[in-house]
């Protein structure tokens, strides 16, 4: 058990300071170990979430340079605690969140909602912000489920990872039918303006483009790539920046857990985007894993390669499935795998957080897609904590 050491606590000093750097709305503005700006942009105030994380929240400031109580540490002693939620533990080691996907359907289950409230600091809309949910017909936006998620997150103090603006899947047929570049460019820009623009200032990270590569690193065939070539990615990121200047913009993909063509292609692409001045902040590695897959012990290596681009990285859809039925041995192995996967983020300095793709095995996408597999999350179908919860905790605190 790791506890906050008394001698370390004695080294903490609370100081009130006023500095000129302005943090954007939703950005971090203080906390133990924080060395960035501590004043918030006009219209927002630096609010202490806990000793390790303060955030610029909108709507409560009248001045453009608000002073804030900043907790500063005079020692670099390791800080960790064995108590508190998964999210509090992630923040205690200097990261932004421990998150989960959620939406109106799952949050309507009181047991699910209670766990998200208690344990998670960030929610990612599982389906409600996808193109087929938000713009079924050109220019006609249906946002009620997405609004529900955003309102829920805001009222419960959770960060939001927007997911996802441009993806070949869950795409209405009217988009897939477009054949000319000018029309598709406008359609992408209008879609991003309609969805990301609606929530400007409220979204922490956006998955701007999702799954643009095949596993060998070639670009995936899609209407976007077929009509616009890889320039659709540049177009999408520029449109997202215009629609929501404060959100951090991510490219997201799966099978980035092992070295190979896809990781190499991702590094090459983001290197080109950065050089071209395209506004991109991070790379999401989905991390849909299988218990005891041989790549898991080494997954920190490709994550480090992605982080070496200088961008932030995150595990964005972590789950670790097994062949059903589960048993004590598989659950113990899964726990160990969760520890390794979460620690892969923890040991990567640029890794800002981990999101699990759900809370309870009751609602996981896995059994529907991989028949005979499941039990991939931290709580079982009856909302009992699994050994994997202990593993994830150990990965954060390792
Ligand atoms: O979990 C999502 C499931 O409810 C949907 O039916 C499915 C449709 O494609 O998408 C699932 O989420 C996916 C995510 O958006 C992107 N990465 C893969 C996820 C699992 O399929």
UniProtKB/TrEMBL annotation:
Name the GO cellular-component terms. extracellular region
List UniProt keywords, sorted A-Z. Carbohydrate metabolism, Glycosidase, Hydrolase, Polysaccharide degradation, Signal
Domain of life the protein comes from: Eukaryota
The entry lists its GO molecular-function terms as: cellulose binding; endo-1,4-beta-xylanase activity
Checking PROSITE patterns in the record gives: CBM1_1, CBM1_2, GH10_2
* Annotated EC: 3.2.1.8
Task: Specify the protein name.
Answer: Beta-xylanase
Highest lineage ranks of the organism? Eukaryota, Fungi, Dikarya, Ascomycota, Pezizomycotina
